[in-house]
Amino acid sequence: MNRLRSSMISDGGFLLFLLACFVSIIFTAGNPNLYLQNIIFLNVAFLIAVITYFTNVTTGLILNILFIFGYGTYTLYQTIVAGGLIGTQNYFWLILTPIFTLATWLMTLGNRQLQSENEQLIKVNQSLATVDLKTSLKNALSFQSDATVFMALSVRYHIPLTLMVISVKYWDEIKRMIGEEQLMEAVLDLSRMSQTNIRTNDSLYLLNKENPMWGMLLITDRPGASIVIDRLRKSVEERNRGEYAEKYKVELVLKMGAVEFNSAEINNPLEFIVQAKKQLEYDV
Question: Domains of the chain: which residue ranges?
């Protein structure tokens, strides 16, 4: 409903602005003797409207008050001192210039409301999203939800559950050596490579995208996770001698650590991640 109201305000301001332009053109063209004077006032009206668009309505109102005061003083001078007559010309721009400002303010008001709502929707979408758009991998939010279920099943049915985490050695140095696009490609390539080395009932998550860290929930014990670690390490070594060496000009080396779930020591998914990350320190 708010989006519809904002859209109607913006559309109403746009239509009012077009109508004011149409009336101004007809009025200016209708009196060739005052053509130059009308063009000057029209430019002033546009200038105030543009300033209002890029600032706020308060600035526009102040400028309109100054314009009305200045133009009113000029009209009084022409009437009293020069003996001129007050006609349509004198009232037209006093009325139309504020209309231009009003129309511009309505457009900016509606647009800013729409932008604000759009930013809020983006934030809500990011906070609720469970899949990374670039890699199509489940993210940390999804991990917390899934890990809670897996941990409960592990306790109830005595199923071994191990979390393995993977990061890239010297990532900060690599970031300085290759471009942003290649960084994203490296994350994608490593994600695909990791997926091919796990079973269909295991789950892969991208826990951190800025400083890439993947998490794998493996339905196995710690020795079984060691087999997966060895398999991943060999896959990366093979690719470093082939496609990665040609593509990135640097060697991508993984740090891997794993910890088996123990209900007595691990109470929630975040603790599970912390315990697994500690194991990375031993992979040197």
Answer: 2-128, 138-280
CATH 3.10.20.90 matches 138-280? no
For residue range 84-119, list pLDDT tens digits in order: 566 677 788 888 889 999 998 888 887 787 777 778
Give the pLDDT confidence of 243-276 residue by residue, as tens digits.
777 777 777 888 999 999 999 989 999 999 999 9
What's the per-residue H, E or C state across the chain? CHHHHHHHHHHHHHHHHHHHHHHHHHHHHCCHHHHHHHHHHHHHHHHHHHHHHHCCHHHHHHHHHHHHHHHHHHHHHHHHCCCCCCCHHHHHHHHHHHHHHHHHHHHHHHHHHHHHHHHHHHHHHHHHCCECCCCCCEEHHHHHHHHHHHHHHHHHHCCCCEEEEEEECCHHHHHHHCCHHHHHHHHHHHHHHHHHCCCCCCEEEEEECCCCEEEEEECCCHHHHHHHHHHHHHHHHHHHCCHHHHHHCCCCCEEEEEEECCCCCCCCHHHHHHHHHHHHCCCC
